[in-house]
Design a protein that fits this description.
The complex is a heterodimer of chains A (420) and B (91).
Chain A (H helix, E strand, L loop, with lengths): L7 E6 L5 E2 L14 E5 L1 H7 L2 H5 L29 E3 L1 H7 L3 E6 L10 H14 L4 E5 L3 H13 L2 E7 L4 H8 L4 E5 L3 H12 L5 E2 L5 H6 L2 H10 L7 E5 L4 H15 L9 E7 L4 H7 L25 H10 L4 E4 L1 H15 L5 H16 L7 E6 L7 H4 L13 H17 L1
Parallel strand pairs in A: 5-13, 6-7, 6-9, 7-8, 10-11, 10-13, 11-12
Antiparallel strand pairs in A: 1-2, 1-3, 4-5
Chain B lengths: L1 E5 L13 E5 L3 H11 L3 H5 L10 E5 L2 E2 L15 E6 L5
Parallel strand pairs in B: 1-5
Antiparallel strand pairs in B: 1-2, 3-4, 3-5
Chain lengths: 420, 91
């Protein structure tokens, strides 16, 4: 074990088990398997109790022993602890007894779950001595890296597909870092970044910092457990791009059970994709344990990863937990967004529409029983993907500033409704 | 037919730190075989026991994923470029 490694022991290949030191390295040099952080759970168990967690400030770092940094966090110290909302109106509409919404659309500071992974990746990057951070992104990650790097005084290079939603581009540019638009889809951005990462001494949060970065997603699962009264929810629905979030929610549930923070109860983790980019869902429905890459074509651009790096493990998690998986069309995604907004007052981005619409399908098919309780993970904010809803959210009725005009409008609409 | 192969960092110990090597091969599979003959051990890093490209390895010919082409049967011509890249997490 290395000195000053916090609660981490090593990096370990998920495929062959070879161990590596805790540096900026993401891939096993033997079989290219992804590296994952190994923790000293014995020591964590003696320190991380429910009481200890509850005594700490309300942010994701209240679970810091299970997050891979050595010292105290220096980036994103206020991230996390987003609301878990009891969604009774949405539950009625989807036909399920009890529904909860974990709302990372209001995560701090950039309104998506990516602030969780970025605060870990950048805190760790600083510990390892990096001064420039970078990422390949479908948008939310770019926003978060740009913002958190600015606040931490780090240089940032973010690489995005050049056809991203306008607001995600502005939301990346505003912080003053370097934003590079790549003429291609995300998988091409990713390939380029892998090559850049091999050449420049930067901390690429989702390339060489990936083992640390990905662990940040666990905090969403830990919070769900604490907010559910220290119970693992029986059903959780998670949207999938690379599939990483789904696998880390699963890991958080396993760790909480292993450490005695939650009792061991059965749980099912369900995956949600957009039909226009559904390599994982297609494989799951066909009963395969591997996927075929696709070329994405969907309004859910944040989920548009045709070659999902964690697709294999996401399929494994759904199989092991008895979870199911489905995908929905662009129109169903818009309906999902509207349903969540109209029922719960939450405006999610397209990925959230995917989660809501797929949950509806899984409840209708009985894959999630109607008498069950489920949690929907909402990962990003609707203000970032306004284009997807333009022309689909109704229209304003304009009148002059006159009471008579207003009453005439109400009258006309009442008559129209009466006729309808 | 000289084909340019970009060697990723995890494999450069085998290629004596060469970032780019040239092979003469008609297909991706033949290129991997030639790499193996010059840099023994490299094939087992790239392919599994059944000979398929490992699931966490992505191989591209001129920036196109070979799974969209003909996998290891993908034909090569003079001046083509092969990139070998580990899978990357999402964003």
């Amino acid at each position: 074990m290395q000195k000053h490694a916090g609660f981490m022991k090593a990096l370990k290949c998920r495929e062959c088990g070879r161990e590596y030191p805790l540096t900026a390295n993401h891939v096993c040099e033997f079989d290219f398997g992804p590296l994952e952080v190994v923790y000293d759970y014995e020591r964590i168990k003696s320190e991380l109790t429910r009481a200890a967690i509850q005594s700490r400030p309300r942010n994701m770092w209240r679970f810091r022993e299970l997050l891979p940094i050595e010292g105290d966090p220096t980036v994103g110290v206020e991230v996390g602890c987003t609301p878990l909302i009891k969604a009774d109106r949405l539950a009625r509409r989807l036909g399920i007894r009890e529904l909860w919404v974990k709302n990372d659309a209001v995560n701090y500071p950039t309104l998506s779950f990516k602030d969780r992974v970025v605060s870990v990746a950048l805190s760790r990057a600083r510990e390892l001595g990096f001064t420039t951070v970078a990422c390949a992104s479908t948008g939310n990650l770019a926003n978060s890296v740009a913002a958190n790097a600015a606040a931490a005084g780090l240089q940032a290079f973010v690489f995005i597909p050049s056809d991203l939603e306008h607001s995600k581009v502005i939301n990346s540019l505003i912080y003053g870092g370097n934003v590079i638009g790549i003429k291609g889809h995300y998988d091409e951005v990713n390939r380029l970044c892998a090559e850049i990462a091999g050449k420049y001494p930067w901390a690429f949060v989702n390339v060489n910092m990936r083992p640390y970065y990905a662990e940040g997603s666990k905090s969403m699962g830990f919070e769900i457990i604490e907010q559910s009264g220290w119970r693992v929810p029986p059903h959780t629905v998670v949207c999938m791009a690379s599939g990483s979030l789904l696998t880390k929610i699963h890991k958080s549930y396993q760790e909480a059970i292993k450490l005695g923070l939650a009792p061991e109860t059965p749980y099912h983790i369900h995956g949600a994709q957009a039909t226009g980019c559904s390599p994982i869902s297609t494989a799951q429905k066909a009963g395969l344990d591997f996927f075929k890459p696709v070329r994405p074509n969907t309004i859910a651009k944040s989920l548009a990863i045709g070659t999902p790096a964690d697709g294999f493990y996401a399929l494994k998690v759904m199989k092991e937990t008895g979870g199911s998986c489905d995908d929905v069309s662009d129109d169903q995604i818009r309906e999902g967004i509207k349903l969540l907004a109209e029922c719960e007052g939450i405006f999610a981005e397209t990925a959230g529409g995917v989660t809501v619409a797929v949950a509806g399908k899984l409840i209708a098919s009985g894959a999630i029983p109607a008498d069950a309780s489920a949690v929907l993970c909402i990962t990003g904010n609707g203000l970032k993907t306004l284009e997807a809803m333009a022309g689909h959210a109704g229209h304003t009725r304009e009148i002059r500033p006159s009471l008579r005009d207003f009453e005439a409008l109400l009258d006309a609409e009442t008559h129209m409704q009466a006729r309808a | 037919m000289p084909i340019k192969v970009r060697i990723p960092t995890p494999l450069r110990k085998l290629t004596h730190d060469e970032e780019i090597v040239h092979v003469n091969a008609a297909t991706v599979g033949a290129a991997i075989a030639e790499l193996q003959s010059r840099y023994p051990g490299i094939k087992e890093r790239l392919t599994d026991d059944a000979g398929s490209v490992r699931r966490f390895v992505n191989v591209y010919v001129n920036e196109e994923d070979i799974r969209f082409l003909q996998n290891q049967d993908t034909s090569l011509k003079d001046g083509d470029e092969i990139s070998i890249i580990p899978a990357i997490a999402g964003g």
